[in-house]
């Protein structure tokens, strides 16, 4: 019996920009190798995703960034209108409108659908890198 090991492919760091280039709810979309990646700041942290919508590959990272919309109800359970949740920012695909949580990358209505996350690093010196 022989033992087989498979080495994980080496990732390469790609410089994105400076920390101040990506303010809260801001973004940068950059080419990194053969991929295009969107980097976003949400709740002070950086998240990054490949710029390919899970629906049909649209440029999701270039979509509109909006707060989550939720329905409000009165004490009797009757709907009284919609409101925005500024603590849960979403991004909407410019092609057909699929909407994802920026923080998790998951589809707003169907959690089994999601964006492909990319490792992002912010150094103490204020430089931002993605690792592909
Ligand atoms: S490709 Fe994004 S919603 Fe269709």
UniProtKB/TrEMBL annotation:
PANTHER family: FERREDOXIN-RELATED (PTHR21496), RIESKE DOMAIN-CONTAINING PROTEIN (PTHR21496:SF0). It holds the Pfam family Rieske. The keyword Cytoplasm does not apply. It comes from Salinisphaera dokdonensis CL-ES53. This is Rieske (2Fe-2S) domain-containing protein. Belongs to the bacterial ring-hydroxylating dioxygenase ferredoxin component family. It comes from the Bacteria. Its cofactor is [2Fe-2S] cluster. Keywords: 2Fe-2S, Iron, Iron-sulfur, Metal-binding. Residues 14-130 form the Rieske domain.
């Amino acid at each position: 019996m022989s033992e087989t090991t498979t080495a994980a492919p080496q990732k390469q760091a790609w410089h994105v920009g400076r920390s101040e280039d990506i303010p809260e709810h801001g973004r940068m979309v950059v080419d990194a190798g053969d991929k295009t990646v969107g980097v976003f700041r949400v709740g002070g942290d950086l998240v990054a995703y490949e710029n390919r919508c899970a629906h049909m590959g649209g440029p999701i990272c270039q979509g509109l960034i909006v707060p989550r919309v939720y329905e409000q109800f009165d004490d009797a359970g009757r709907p009284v209108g919609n409101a925005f949740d500024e603590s849960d920012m979403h991004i909407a695909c410019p092609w057909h409108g699929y909407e994802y949580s920026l923080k998790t990358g998951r589809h707003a209505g169907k959690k089994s659908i999601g964006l492909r996350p990319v490792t992002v690093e912010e150094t103490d010196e204020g430089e931002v890198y993605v690792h592909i």
